[in-house]
Design goal:
Blueprint lengths: L1 E10 L6 E11 L4 E5 L6 H8 L7 E6 L2 E2 L5 H11 E5 L10 H11 L4 H14 L15 H13 L5 E5 L7 H17 L3 E5 L3 H4 L4 E6 L2 E7 L5 H15 L8
Parallel strand pairs: 3-8, 3-9, 6-7, 7-8
Antiparallel strand pairs: 1-2, 1-4, 4-5, 9-10
The structure holds adenosine-5'-diphosphate and magnesium ion.
Length: 252
């Protein structure tokens, strides 16, 4: 589905250049659940922003279904973003003045989808994500976990196939994190969502089937879960983090 080919990203101008990504290449198959790990400043968000077309690469290419996204005209790019991509952020990015139901359905409503269809789609997603009982509430009236599940529902409600999540568990306590990760696993397994999740947390990453490790903008290592259970995978991830740079607790 997605090919990242030798991408580089520089920020700044001549005398003050930051190399945020350095010749990063990997491929994502349809239906994969991938975690991207690395210390703060290692380029995780930059990588996600380049894939999501929020940012552009300085060199290299990103292909979606064989087509270079850099070559897409602006209108096609906007359509690609709207129809194919769903976003989830650490701080939820829900609109405070809308109910969860309205937040989830907003893109569909703006798209002139008829209200009955919007309602049906929103409720289907809400049922899967276990937030039916809070749909009428406003973001400030629900828990962080419920907000993030609403954000996931919003991200996929229009049939988007690629979920890009930047630290989705970053603002959640451990119980809500576990719940969200189980729901993301179901979105991946039962709804066929392809997921790219940035996280600095080994526990969160252990829910993925593959983990990519970034260090100083370069792809440092990759781990595949294979047939191993999640707890075993978790410990392997911790081992790589230790190799990546000193104390595991530094990797935040
Ligand atoms: P991470 O998400 O892994 O913490 P980022 O992708 O945010 O890392 O940042 C990678 C590097 O690029 C860092 O050195 C950061 O300071 C730099 N950087 C990120 N965004 C910008 C920007 N808009 N302008 C300048 N430098 C940036
Ligand atoms: Mg980041």
């Amino acid at each position: 589905m997605l090919q990242v080919r030798n991408i580089e990203k520089y920020y700044g101008s001549k005398n003050n250049v930051t190399k945020a990504l350095d010749r990063v290449s990997f491929e994502v198959d349809d239906g994969e659940f991938i975690a991207i790990m690395g210390a703060s400043g290692s380029g995780k968000t930059t990588l996600l922003n380049c894939i999501s077309t929020i940012d552009t690469v300085s060199a290299g290419d990103i292909l979606l279904d064989g087509e270079s996204i850099a070559a897409l005209p602006p209108r096609e790019l906007a359509r690609f973003r709207r129809e194919r991509l769903g976003f989830v952020f650490q701080d939820f990015n829900l609109l405070d003045t809308l109910t969860l139901e309205e937040n989830i359905g907003l893109a569909l409503s703006l798209n002139n989808t008829d209200p009955e269809t919007v309602q049906r789609r929103v409720r289907e997603m809400a049922a899967r994500l276990e937030i039916m009982d809070v749909l009428e509430k406003f973001p400030y009236q629900v828990s962080g976990g419920q907000k993030q599940r609403a954000a996931c529902a919003r991200a996929m409600v229009a049939g988007q196939s690629l979920l890009l999540a930047d630290e989705p568990t970053g603002a959640l306590d451990s119980k809500a994190s576990k719940n969200l990760l189980e729901i993301m696993t179901r979105m991946n397994r039962d709804m066929g969502a392809t997921i790219l999740m940035v996280t600095h947390d080994a526990y969160s990453a252990s829910y993925a089937a593959r983990v990519l490790f970034l260090k100083d903008g370069r792809l440092f290592h990759e781990l595949l879960r294979g047939e191993r259970g999640r707890p075993v995978f978790y410990h392997e991830i911790l081992d790589v983090l230790a190799l990546l740079g000193g104390d595991v607790s530094d990797v935040i």
